[in-house]
Amino acid sequence: MTYPGIDEIDYKQRLEAAKKLHEAFNKTIEELMRGKSPKLIIPKRTLSNTIYDPERKLLLLGPAKLKRSFTDVNEAKRFMQTVLMARILYESLLNNEYPTIRDLYYRGKYSITYMDLRDRRKKSENTWEEQKESDAAIRDIEVFTGLLREDMLVLSKEKGKLVGRIKLRSGGDVIDASKMGHGAYALESTPDLIDILEVDAEYVLVVEKDAVFQQLHRIKFWDKHKAILITSAGQPDRATRRFVRRLNEEFGLPVYILTDADPYGWYIYSVFKVGSITLSYESERLATPQARFIGVMMTDILTKEEMRNVLARMKNLRKRNLEDILNILRNKPYIDSKERRNVIIKAKEADIKRAEQLKGYTWFKSFRWRLELEAFLRYKIKVEIEALASKGLRFLAEKYIPEKIETGDCID
Amino acid sequence: MSSGGESIEKFRSLSPAEFFYRNREIAGFSNPSRALYQTVRELVENSLDACDNHGILPTVRITVFPENTKENHYRVTVSDNGIGIPPRYVPQAFGKVLFGSKYKLRQTRGTFGLGAKMAILYGQITTGKPVEVRTSPKGSQYSYFFKIMIDIEKNEPIVMERRIMKRKSKRHGTTVSVVVEGDWSRARSRILEYIKRTAMGVPYATITIITPEKEAYKYSRVIRKMPPPPREVKPHPRGVDIEMLKAIIASTKSSTLKDMLKNAFQSIGKKSAEILLEEAGIDPNKDPRKLTLDEITALVSSMRKYNKYRPPRTDALSPLGKDIIEAGLKGVLKPEFAYAVTRKPSSYSGHPFIVEVGVAYGGEVPLSPDKGPILYRFANKIPLLYDEGSDVCWKVVSDANFNWRQYNVKLPDRIAVLVHICSTKIPYKGVGKESIADVPEIEREVRNAVKEAARHLRLYLSKKIRAEEEKRKIMTLVKYVPEVARSLSILSKPPASDGNPVDYESIKSVLMKIIERRARKIDGLNIDLRELIIDVG
What we know:
The complex is a heterodimer. Chain A is α+β, with helices and mostly antiparallel strands.
């Protein structure tokens, strides 16, 4: 079933993933055949079992495990769903298929018929009703086997885009990402199957917004500044995060993240950097702990007077902190109060709630992040990346970004 | 006690027949609908007594046919397989009010001591038709047929026709047929309900009713056991009343009061007789027939006051018993659970009584109202249909007074309670004799009996809930077996090398064994779980 030269990388990956799946479940089968009631020991994917590791700067899955036993009536259905999903994944690996999670949902969904013990009538029950349930089964298998869905060649919608002086091999083709015209290279669902051939860049710039990415691409920002330009188009998908991580890990490129100055933007940065809370088991492979936040910052637009008000809200400030602030404010504000009137947006109730939540996360407790969050909470305003572009695209490309990189005005 | 009627006659200026004719509402003949119902009832109860009291398993057949549709006349015919009636007694038994075997102290069905005579009287008055009686006494070679009317003024039977026939079969029994003015369409549901409830109380009988629409309802015998026939006992002095004492005086053979008391009552010896008479201020050696009304009143009062009697004897009572009640509930209601309790005898005011309670649950038992279970009341084996709300039994079982939840029953539910009170004197409330009065002793016994039966129901229900829960759990596991077996068998096959894959059937059988280990612990689950599996396609 292999097509040499085309799917060779895929094929190897398939075989390896299938082997791992088989081995993980074979233990359970062997135990069962010895007459033991079958069970799966799976790391818990709960919030309480999500731990921030300050050393590695990663959100990781904690040590708690759950025992999913077939003979436990409350777990029986999920046990069935888990082995059903494992079987479908296994079959599609062996059959050279590339299912999406929606495909997997449909493939596993059918009606189980059985005889009711109480009234001796035929009844039926669906294996699962909503995709939510089949998605949960996929996640269970990921944590149970240590295989991510990408490893099992499960495809998802491509969201991330890339442009820059980088050459890749994907599916047997060599792609030069500096020759994409006005378009860009769409980051495929299986980023580990990409062979990175050549990189001629000094850093990676990840832009939250697709529109800003396009603007920077049109003026060939990446060419002039020797950057690899990537957009996640909102919340980053797994492939984008994995590819950014690979560029950082395999080529030592610094990673800068540019988002809106609001809690959602900051959380996007956080997902790139430490991982997501709900999918903490992937962080180890998807997060980039070295990534830095380049903007947009609240401190980019607030006046010195306003900054003083913000500081007044913060307790436990040391002398060193105050020096830091002077440093930070050297080039600021980038937008004066006259221009500001047109570009700021009032924060909504939900934004404020979210900011309060962020304040509670360990990795947002550094002085610089506290400053950002307190400034936001004090003035309750948001700023979009486009606000900077409104001063002219060149202001963003030629002044704001290079100056920040040069002076190191980034938040870690 | 043929002299009973005469003694009553002495004290009344009306003939008993005339008296009951004038007061027919009391006996339940107030309108055509009620009268038709009462006619069926009196004849059926007579028939059952004719069998019951002689240890014969009753077979009773009832027909109600239109005789004259223009006048709303119906012919009600009831046949039984009882011992029959000696022909010389037939005219008196059917043609003279207050003649009969009922005015004695033992538990019988008749509520008024009138048996069928009130129905005959009513039929005669409304339609002018005589009663027809065909009887084949047990052991006789002949059948006897009579047409009788009652001379109301003289209270004497008029025999219109009499025939004797040689019998071909050995079958014995009596058939009574009367024509009465009735209202079938209104009485129908009452009569059918009455038959149903009667059948519940006598599951050892086969009862068939054929309606004017030619519909037959048959309740077949479900048990061959019968309650022992009640024995006659002398009355207990605590329960005496003036009327009873007068009747005893009229029939006594004793020449002194002292002897009469000793002979006619239980629990009275020579000594207590003397104390009672001294208390009443009457010479113990006086001829009982010479007592004045004042003396009778004084004697009754001293007999009721005295408190050192032994409790009344209970041999006169004929409880149905646990087996018969349970059979009755099962036969008529087809419940999934039935349990009955017969309490020990007890007494109130000198009258012995026994309370029996049966509880039926689930199955085809109809849904009860919110405010209490479906209640089936019986007094001396007769079903009581009316005035349920004012009956002491309803007072006990209604949700307001009985904590059904405590017994795992959440009303409304499919639950019925049968209460049977048997006594030599049922304390009816009011003249209708359809509900039992709040006698504290009876209420207490009923409550204890219901509690006892309900405890068994609770036990059954909690077992059932547990078993259902276990079954549900087993189901949950069994239904996923095919998919789990299929998936694991596919996953057991290594991707590249051959390895040792495990096939679907082996995994399935191991999984089923694990589940069966667990199912074995469930009560009454002796089926092959494999039957429940529908393999994946």
